[in-house]
């Protein structure tokens, strides 16, 4: 079973998430939180597989809660799936930098939300393509790439840079395989090599780096 903690301050929305997840044969909601402080405490004691996190919450917002649960200084980081809206895009970028494993829009249909939880639970990252280009591109582009930031990409082969570019465009492994006419397993190997060479935790960090180094630009 995928053990889920839902962190959402709106009671009706939280109840909807709980109903959706508990209706799945492979999911169980083991905790609910209406504020970030409670979320941090619950996750620390329950150790769920996935934390579904809202951003704007009382007491402690979702960004700081994410940082405390999945930040670079956390010994055993939690897998946090941020659910947000477009008008909170700057906060989402901060949440990704804080260690979130991915994000979805709040108006995502239930099947997409369910798939998102399963994807994050499996150790992969979830990046909605439209959100990737709109949010990460916009805010990463504010920072002019420096020589130091570009240096890590020099260790990538031409094909690995190509794969990283497609990752930054929000393509899944299957879509990358189709675009490059290679097998799904080959794509997984490339992704693994990219993360290892760049010393990155997951695809989210790879996307942020791709924008910050100027490998890709917002459209």
Structure description:
Residues 3-121 form the Response regulatory domain. Keywords: DNA-binding, Phosphoprotein, Transcription, Transcription regulation. This is LuxR family two component transcriptional regulator. This protein has 219 residues and is of the alpha/beta class. It has two domains: 2-127, 3-Layer(aba) Sandwich (Rossmann fold); 145-212, Arc Repressor Mutant, subunit A, CATH 1.10.10. Helices cover 51% and strands 13% of the residues. The protein has eleven helices and six strands. Strands 2-1-3-4-5-6 form a six-stranded parallel beta sheet, with helices on both faces. The longest helix has 14 residues, at 184-197. The N and C termini lie far apart (40 Å). The relative contact order is 0.11.
Please specify the SSE layout and strand pairing.
Elements (H helix, E strand, L loop, with lengths): L1 E6 L3 H12 L4 E7 L2 H11 L3 E4 L8 H9 L9 E5 L4 H9 L4 E4 L4 H12 L4 E2 L1 H12 L6 H4 L7 H11 L4 H8 L3 H14 L5 H10 L7
Parallel strand pairs: 1-2, 1-3, 3-4, 4-5, 5-6
Helix pairs in contact: 2-3, 3-4, 4-6, 6-11, 8-10, 8-11, 9-10
GO molecular function: DNA binding
InterPro entries: CheY-like_superfamily, NreC/VraR/RcsB-like_REC, Sig_transdc_resp-reg_C-effctor, Sig_transdc_resp-reg_receiver, Tscrpt_reg_LuxR_C, WalR-like
Keywords: DNA-binding, Phosphoprotein, Transcription, Transcription regulation
